[in-house]
Amino acid sequence: MRYSHKLIAQYIGGAVGKDELIGYLEMLGLNPSAIRKADGDAVFELETPANRGDLLSLTGVAREVLPFTTHSLKMPASGFKEKNSSLLPVKIEDKNDCYYYSCRIIKGIDPSAHPAWLKESMEKLGYRSSFSVVDISNYAMAETGQPLHIFDLDKIEGFVEVRRARKGEILTTLDGKKRELDAGVLVIADSKKAVALAGIMGGENSEVAAHTKNILIESAVFNPVVVRRGRRKLGLATEASARFERGIDAGCCKQGMARAAFLVSEICGGEAGPLSEEGIMDEQPPEIRLDGKKVDRLSGLEIEGAFIKNLLNKLNFDVKKRGSVYAVKPPPYRKDIREDVDVIEEVVKYRQYSEVPSEMPVASIKPTPSSAEVEAAEKIKDIAVRLGFTEVVNMGITSKENAALPGGPVPAEIENPLSANLGFLRTSLIPEMLEAAGFNVNREVKNLDIFELGRVYRKENSSYGEEWMLSFLSVNSGGFFSLKGKIHKLLEKSGIKDIDYASQPGIFSKEENLGVCCGGVETGNIFIVSEGIKGRYGLQKEDICGGEIRLEGVREKISFAGVFREQARYPSSRRDFSFVFPESLIWKKVEDLILSLELPVEKIECFDFYRGKNIPGSSISVSFSVIFRSSERTLGSEEVAGFTEKIINAVCSVLEGKLRGGSGDS
Amino acid sequence: MERKPIKDDIEIILKRAVEEAVTAADSESLENWKTKYLGRKGEINGLFSRLSEFSAEERKDAGARINDLKNKLEGIYGERKEGMAEKRRSANLSFPGKSPSIGALHPVTIVTREMTAIFAEMGFGIASGPEIETDYYNFEALNIPAEHPSKDVWDTFYVSEKDKILLRTHTSPVQVRIMEKTSPPFRVVAVGKCFRKDDVDSTHSPVFHQMEGLMVDEGINFSHLKGVLTHFITRMFGDSVKVKFTPSFFPFTEPSAEVSMSCNICKGGGCSTCHKTGYIEVLGCGMVHPQVFRNVGYDAEKFTGFAFGMGIERLAIIKFGITDIRYFYQNDIRFIGQFS
Question: What is the ipTM of this complex?
Answer without folding.
Answer: 0.91
